[in-house]
Design brief:
Blueprint: H1 2-18, H2 25-41, E1 51-52, E2 59-60, E3 62-69, E4 74-80, H3 82-123, E5 138-143, E6 150-154, E7 166-169, E8 173-178, E9 181-183, H4 214-232, H5 236-245, H6 247-257, H7 263-292, H8 297-302, H9 308-325, H10 334-341, H11 344-369, H12 371-396, H13 402-423, H14 426-457, H15 468-471, H16 473-486, H17 494-508, H18 512-538, H19 554-572, H20 575-582
Parallel strand pairs: 5-7
Antiparallel strand pairs: 1-2, 3-4, 5-6, 7-8, 8-9
Family: Belongs to the complex I subunit 4 family.
Biased composition (Polar residues): 165-175
Region (Disordered): 126-153, 165-208
């Protein structure tokens, strides 16, 4: 099962790529992701007979080791315990949801195009006296031939022009969608109906329908496979290889399928930051291997980590490398750009999976390999985390775009995770692990909802939105639910990690009380900026961009409901997850 958990999405990616011109390619990807989820879900079976490793009887649930290049300390060594399993399961779940998002969206798009072609064929049979049809992709609202009320004529875009929907109202003004922007003039008009799962890429150019391309599904599966391998790797060299393997498909998702106006710059910035951090991380890993004489992660942790002489050096190198991916302030600036430019599914994986690679590496790898160095560096790490919480909160209070706001909120949430880890107590480590997983459920849900809003309204500007609770009450209700979970409302998943982070910092006493107060004030800021977002998006009169938008479809409900259920489950019943963390090797 350990091998299948990582191999199935990789094989699925290859199959989807090979069959990318077939209409069923998306569903092959969704099937591969579902099988991988089943394989990960079955990993706890038989864990009572865990595989003994070196040390004080510490155990993995399961472990597999196959020699690969022993002279390079490289083994294909996989292992799983309560910490790595929860993150591998989260990765598999988000992989399934993202593939379903693409598959259902492609089906609906094909149905819409078929309907458009049928309508065009019918229109061509009209009498010669009938009004001329508008160019593909346009909607014209003008006076009726008899001078009566306005007539709305709609013709769906062809595949070559589907990204450019224009709405004209005589000479009085226009509502035009271009690369995610909305310009409104004249009287408010009903937006074109949106079906199924929303698109995640901007319009225009050769990539205008790229969000539903099977190539995107293949890249999503590649990210899932490499990320799963990171969480299951028990060999430091294998860990590094898998960590780096995530970079290329994620870069391609942003660079090829993102917003045409910003995707290239955002992808380049993501790559440069990640590579720079990885070089430092690799140096730290190789110093640890040279010091201990082994690349066996579990054995080094069980033995107490590297020697005291190099502990601070190893931790510092690893912490900076992982802080880039986490991201920790001030190494976070790549994240808002990448999130804003990425397609919806790209943002979901960035928040739910890639950020977890950084925090998992910081907690298990950096903290496990160099516990003495972690204790020495804890005050610096804690101060940076607290500053990140405050800075992110203050910035979010002024951000005008919904996806960028959600992206910056992740900087604050990851600040809570890092602060809890830096506290170094049992409560702190568990709060870090819990907050990490909760963020992986709540923030992807927010990005799915933000993507749905942008697909319907063709804008992410908070000032251009409004009245969504009247135009699409179910969508507004889900957005409110996710926002309340993100701000840490008791009874939802976000509460436990943030509350016990404050407790863990306060438990240290002394100057740590100031850090606890800063984190508590950061939670207040989170409530302020998320409620501000809801005020702009959901309340007030219906904005012109929100007229006639569709509410939550059955397909969207199917994709989002597991995240809603997980957020409720972790919020109401946190005990089982905390028990799983106690079975982790830390």
């Amino acid at each position: 099962m350990l091998v299948l958990a990582a191999a199935l999405p990789a094989l699925g990616a290859l199959a989807v790529w090979a069959l990318r011109r077939k209409p069923y390619a998306h569903w092959i990807g969704a099937g591969a992701a579902a099988l991988a989820f089943a394989a990960v879900a079955l990993l706890p079976v038989g864990r009572d007979t865990g595989a003994l490793i070196a040390g004080d009887g510490a155990t993995w649930w399961h472990r597999l080791a196959i020699p690969w290049a022993p002279s390079l300390h490289l083994e294909f060594s996989l292992a799983v315990d309560g910490v790595s399993w929860t993150l591998a399961l989260l990765t598999a779940l988000l992989g399934v949801l993202c593939c379903l998002h693409n598959a259902v969206g492609a089906e609906q798009r094909a149905a819409d195009l078929y309907g458009a072609d049928h309508a065009t064929a019918s229109a061509s049979l009209q009498p010669a006296s009938a009004p001329l049809q508008e160019p593909a992709g346009s909607v014209e609202n003008g006076g009726s031939p008899g001078g009566g009320g306005p007539v709305l004529g709609v013709r769906a875009a062809s595949p070559a022009t589907s990204g450019h929907l224009q709405v004209a109202s005589g000479a009085s003004g226009s509502l035009q969608d271009g690369a995610g922007s909305v310009e409104t003039g004249g009287p408010p008009l009903a937006a074109a109906p949106v079906h199924g799962v929303p698109a995640g890429a901007g319009a225009g150019g050769e990539e205008q329908d790229g969000w539903q391309s099977p190539v995107l599904t293949a890249l999503l599966l590649a990210v899932q496979a490499a990320s799963t391998l990171v969480f299951l790797a028990d060999n430091l060299v294998l860990f590094f290889i898998a960590f780096e393997a995530v970079l290329l498909p994620m870069w391609a998702i942003v660079h090829r399928f993102g917003d045409p106006a910003t995707r290239r710059r955002a992808a380049a910035k993501f790559a440069l930051f990640t590579i720079a951090g990885s070089l430092l991380m690799a140096t730290g890993l190789f110093v640890a291997v040279a010091d201990t004489g082994t690349a066996d992660l579990g054995a080094i942790i069980a033995a107490g980590g590297v020697s005291g002489d190099v502990s601070l050096l190893v931790f510092s190198l690893l912490a900076i490398g992982f802080a880039v991916k986490a991201p920790l302030w001030p190494l976070h600036s790549w994240l808002p750009d990448a999130h804003t430019a990425a397609p919806t599914v790209g943002s979901v994986l960035l928040a739910g999976v890639l950020l977890k690679l950084g925090t998992y590496g910081l907690i298990r790898v950096a903290g496990g390999l160099a516990p003495a160095g972690a204790a020495e560096a804890a005050p610096v790490l804690a101060v940076l985390a607290a500053l990140g919480i405050l800075v992110a909160g203050l910035v979010c209070l002024r951000l005008p775009e919904i996806k960028r706001l959600i992206a910056y909120s992740s900087v604050g949430h990851m600040g809570f995770v890092v602060l809890a880890f830096a506290a170094g107590t049992e409560a702190g480590v568990r709060a870090a692990l819990f907050g990490n997983l909760a963020h992986g459920l709540v923030t992807p849900l927010l990005f799915f909802l933000a993507g749905a809003l942008k697909a319907r309204t063709h804008t992410g500007s908070l000032t251009a939105l409004g009245g969504v609770r009247l135009a699409a009450p179910a969508l507004a209700g889900l957005l409110g639910f996710a926002a309340l979970a993100s701000l840490g409302l008791p009874g939802l998943a976000g509460f436990w990690g943030e509350a016990f982070t404050v407790y863990a910092a306060a438990e240290r006493g002394g100057a740590w009380l100031l850090l606890a107060a800063a984190a508590a004030f950061g939670a207040f800021l989170a409530a302020a900026y998320l409620l501000r977002m809801l005020k702009h998006v959901s309340h007030g009169p219906i904005a012109p961009a929100a007229f006639g938008i569709g509410d939550v479809s059955a397909a969207e409900a199917a994709v989002w409901s597991p995240l809603v259920a997980g957020t409720l489950l972790l919020g109401l019943v946190p005990g089982p997850l905390l028990t799983l963390f106690s079975e982790g090797l830390l």
